[in-house]
Structure to design on (327 residues):
């Protein structure tokens, strides 16, 4: 079961990468229907099928590269769902002979990935409604985090000799986890509303940005036929982007203070090792965020920014679990 969970974690990372790539290549509506693509299980390739598909969806021009981006993401997400189903069944079977086997967490994961499938469908049927798109992203990050938590529980992490001083770090570590999750949510909102390039200068934004802030508008969902390419005006998108940048500063401060306190108080090599992973993920994530601005959102950097956001979240999940085990 551990091997299956480990593989599922890696596959969940792949799904997150593919989801980011699909979103960043504007392929979220590459297939206008769900779960198939223009009425087919795969992207219609030959001329006859392509013509029939276009006739069926006259308002959605068939772009093969976008359609394939979307379908590969769907296939990968479907495989992940099957893996989690197998994990849940395996946990139920093993629990009969090994009562200590986690069962509730695999079952919750199965329920979550089922809801994720529904969000994936609504993403298409509701034409990229921002709340649904952001929820779908957060659901993917949550699925990955819970798979990693399941791995830690199966591994039964032990802190040698305990580390009484590290217990004081638990509250701050949990707060850092919450802050990072909220920052990921802000990033998801920016991406869902196509606001990634609303500000192109550092450190906050260009011009008289503070005079144009529209918080109410930025965090509302206007009525629109489709939300592809965004439905908010510039001031609202700029406000989203500014909120994400301010959130990044808050995240750096909170996680940085947690790391400083951790390095000063922790004595366990296990906890110190996890702090090292948090530090590495934070440094790379900040560098990628700055690169997105400086180099105008290159695709590879933007995808990597999603990946290291997930890795930063996982490192904090691991830290919180180990601190809880140490208590």
């Amino acid at each position: 079961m551990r091997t299956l969970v480990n593989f599922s974690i890696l596959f969940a990372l792949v799904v997150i990468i593919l989801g980011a790539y699909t979103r960043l290549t504007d392929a979220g509506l590459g297939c206008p229907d769900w779960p198939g693509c223009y009425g087919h299980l795969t992207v219609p390739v030959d001329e006859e099928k392509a013509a029939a598909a276009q006739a069926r969806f006259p308002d959605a021009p068939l772009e093969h590269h976008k359609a394939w981006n979307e379908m590969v993401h769907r296939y990968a997400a479907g495989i992940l769902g099957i893996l989690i189903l197998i994990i849940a069944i395996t946990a139920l079977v093993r629990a009969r002979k090994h009562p200590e086997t986690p069962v509730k967490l695999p079952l919750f994961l199965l329920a979550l990935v089922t809801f994720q499938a529904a969000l994936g469908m609504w993403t298409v049927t509701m034409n990229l409604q921002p709340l649904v798109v952001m929820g779908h992203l957060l659901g993917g990050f949550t699925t990955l985090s819970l798979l990693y938590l399941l791995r830690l529980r199966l591994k039964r992490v032990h802190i040698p000799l305990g580390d009484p001083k590290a217990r004081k770090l638990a509250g701050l570590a949990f707060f850092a986890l919450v802050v990072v999750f909220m920052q990921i949510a802000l990033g998801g909102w920016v991406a869902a509303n196509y606001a990634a390039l609303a500000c192109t200068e550092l450190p906050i934004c260009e011009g008289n940005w503070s005079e144009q802030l529209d918080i109410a508008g930025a965090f509302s969902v206007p009525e629109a036929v489709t939300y592809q390419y965004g439905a908010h005006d510039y001031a609202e998108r700029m406000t989203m982007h500014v909120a994400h940048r301010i959130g990044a500063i808050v995240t750096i401060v909170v996680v940085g203070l947690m790391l400083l306190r951790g390095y000063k108080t922790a004595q366990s090599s296990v906890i110190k090792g996890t702090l090292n992973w948090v530090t590495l993920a934070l440094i790379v994530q900040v560098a990628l965020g700055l690169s997105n601005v400086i180099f105008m959102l290159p695709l590879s950097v933007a995808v990597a920014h999603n990946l290291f956001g997930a890795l930063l979240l996982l490192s904090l999940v691991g830290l919180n679990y180990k601190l809880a085990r140490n208590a």
